[in-house]
Amino acid sequence: MKAVKVFIFVLIVGLIVIQFVPSGIPGNKPEDDKNIINSGLLSDPVTELIRRSCFDCHSDQTELPWYSRLAPVSWMLANHINEGRSHLNFSEWEGYGEREKISKLEEIKDEAESGGMPLKSYLLMHPEAKMDPEEVLLLVAWAEEVSIKILE
Amino acid sequence: MIVMKALFSIIFPVAVSGFVLLHGSPSGRTLQQSGSVYPAEIKKVIESKCYGCHSINGKSQDAKDALMWDSLPGLQKGKIIATLDDMIEVLEEGTMPPAGTLKKNPEMKLLSEEIKIMKSWAKTWADSLLK
Fold first, then answer.
1. ipTM of the complex model
2. What's the domain range around B12?
3. Residue A71 and which of A81, A131, A144, B79 are 20 to 30 A apart at CA?
């Protein structure tokens, strides 16, 4: 019994202590010209879709939920957002070279079709971000269209 | 005497030709049809450092999904460019061949000269497709 009490005590102290460790969650930036939303490439439905399903990790306009302040969950969030932005950041779209754009569009198609994105762990807390089959088709068709435009 | 003559003029050439015909190129270690698309110096690098995994005989499905040297030239433009972009990235980051592979086969490590020519060739090809 004593062991259990000690364990719980250590756990609680531990949880309090880790709240003082910086989470590493990156800051947001206001939307500007480099954002894909302002590029004229997106129809309204596609804009709405990527805001809903992608932007939290793949843009500089992340909507942070209340639990983003709680360690260790905040560390996982920081990892997702940093990784997400480094692989693809819609807010930086116009800054990408053509080769990079084509490459990222192919990846968007692959990840959407395979269901690898949005991340399962993200969908647990954000079920509204799930793309239904029609939305996947919409996104893939859009990515294909933009790719063709660049290659012309 | 006649036996010796026979040996050298008939049996020996037949044996050698037979050996060459049966052996051919080391099975699965050389580029197939597509090989003619790649410049000789690039082919050399591919066959010695990449083809083992990035071909039909490769053991890793991930590797095969990422790149198949034999089918690369036949892919859609966008797919080729995306693959080349990934290739340039792994060359710059030094992550290919993978560390695990290099532990067992240290001779497969890409030399800096090889990295240079692969990067330059990939960039040139991607750029030509973007025009």
1. 0.81
2. 1-30
3. A131
